[in-house]
């Protein structure tokens, strides 16, 4: 007797659950992501073969190709505390709203006298704000004060986190405070030298020079 052939049907796969999962993941990342504030200046750093990254707890000094100096310290609470210290020294009153906004910002490159105007400028317009950089000359070395107060607040924050972690038998979630200089490849050497002198005047002798990663030769 001839064999009875069963009709063949193509297998079907319901993709609906996978699509739903993909959209759920996208929604999750959108809601939990923290967007990085745009930097006020673009710096093209020299290349190197070092792949070591800067830690989260750091003070960063950026030098543009035209010699302007910018300052940044990481940490929302750290930034607010540093601003309050600077405000007290320079006798400038900032509102609670301005202090809160400063805590969310990134690098700044204006003098203390113009900082309130800069903070109150719309985020999308800050790149166009007239900036001559943070003063660092011997008569008005505001950069030195920013670094010093960032050092104090950053180290204090690390100490608090470390003590809490040790009490729980865990490792600190951040590394000790580090300092770094990010200079444009075409920056004036004299400006870089003056920034380094500001660090050494504070007895800070260890800091990183940031570069772009360049793959080294294969061995």
How would you summarize what this structure contains?
The protein has helices spanning 16-32, 76-90, 96-104, 112-119, 142-167, 189-201; strands at 47-48, 58-63, 69-73, 178-183, 208-209, 212-213. It is an alpha/beta fold and 219 residues long.
Task: Describe the overall structure.
- By secondary structure, the protein is an alpha/beta fold.
- The chain has one domain (47-213).
- The protein has six helices and six strands; from the N terminus they run αβββααααβαββ.
- A four-stranded mixed β-sheet has the order 3-2-4-5, with helices on one face.
- Helix 2 (76-90) crosses helix 3 and helix 2 runs antiparallel to helix 5.
- 25% of the residues are buried.
Please describe the topology of this protein.
Blueprint: H1 16-32, E1 47-48, E2 58-63, E3 69-73, H2 76-90, H3 96-104, H4 112-119, H5 142-167, E4 178-183, H6 189-201, E5 208-209, E6 212-213
Parallel strand pairs: 1-6, 2-4, 4-5
Antiparallel strand pairs: 2-3
Helix pairs in contact: 2-3, 2-5
What are the salient characteristics of this protein?
disordered C terminus, 219 residues, single chain, two-stranded parallel sheet, alpha/beta, four-stranded mixed β-sheet, 6 helices
